[in-house]
Design goal:
The protein has helices spanning 2-28, 32-60, 68-96, 103-121, 134-162, 170-187, 198-219. With 222 residues, the chain is mainly alpha-helical. The protein has a single domain, classed as Rhopdopsin 7-helix transmembrane proteins. It is globular, with a radius of gyration of 18 Å.
Length: 222
């Protein structure tokens, strides 16, 4: 019961923050950059809701294993939305730093995103069972991890080149999100306690949204 209460409170606060911040930037933002930031944050909240709402329901009712199908569908949806999340972040990098051209890089990001989505669609993932195959969990996260590494390097490079402070901590936030997420993929099946790393992973996403929110504040003179 304590776990259900704690997780539900955390999830409500997190999803509420992501959706409110995202929708505010999306509909009240003036520039394409801020609107992209809003779409990214709103997608984060909406996508994670597909996983977190069924999880909270399961904790309050018959348990996680009994609700494996709903949790699996939510995990699948979140896998797709998080891929799009980082693809939008790539375009925010391009817009913010006024990067022109780089067609090869853009093509690489799209290929990695589509590959990740295609791997998520494989029936061998067995999304509807409680304990899914580790091999396919690792396989579908390889292109996702490469996307994350590229995002970290791109923001770090431009931060160093321009000295711009708006996204000074973006490489650290993205690195932390992946750093907390990958052990869950690898070890949560044999050590369920590792799943607790999803909490600091989520806080890293909150940090990312807060950096995006500053763009909105700056646009409105705050």
């Amino acid at each position: 019961m304590a776990q259900a209460i704690a997780e539900t409170i955390f999830d409500v606060l997190y999803l509420g923050f992501a959706l409110l911040a995202g929708l505010t930037m999306l509909f009240r933002g003036k520039s394409p950059l801020v609107k992209k930031a809003g779409a990214m944050a709103a997608l984060l909240g909406a996508g994670d809701a597909f996983h977190l709402v069924p999880r909270s329901f399961a904790l309050w009712t018959t348990g996680l294993e009994a609700n494996a199908a709903a949790l699996g569908v939510g995990k699948f949806v979140t896998s797709i939305t998080m891929t799009i999340f980082y693809l939008i972040l790539y375009y925010i990098w391009r817009d913010h730093y006024r990067i022109h051209g780089r067609r090869g890089l853009t093509l690489t990001m799209w290929v990695l995103a589509l590959l990740r989505a295609a791997l998520c669609l494989l029936p061998q993932n067995q999304w509807l069972v409680y304990r899914q195959p580790l091999f396919y969990g690792v396989l579908r996260n390889i292109p996702f991890a490469v996307i994350g590494i590229l995002i970290i390097l791109l923001f770090a490079q431009e931060n160093k080149r321009t000295g711009d402070g708006a996204f000074r901590f973006m490489p650290a936030a993205v690195a932390l999100s992946f750093g907390f997420y990958l052990p869950v993929v690898l070890f949560s099946g044999v050590a369920p306690a590792v799943g607790m790393l999803m909490i600091p992973k989520t806080l890293a996403y909150v940090w990312i949204v807060l950096m995006l929110w500053k763009l909105y504040q700056k646009e409105n003179g705050k």
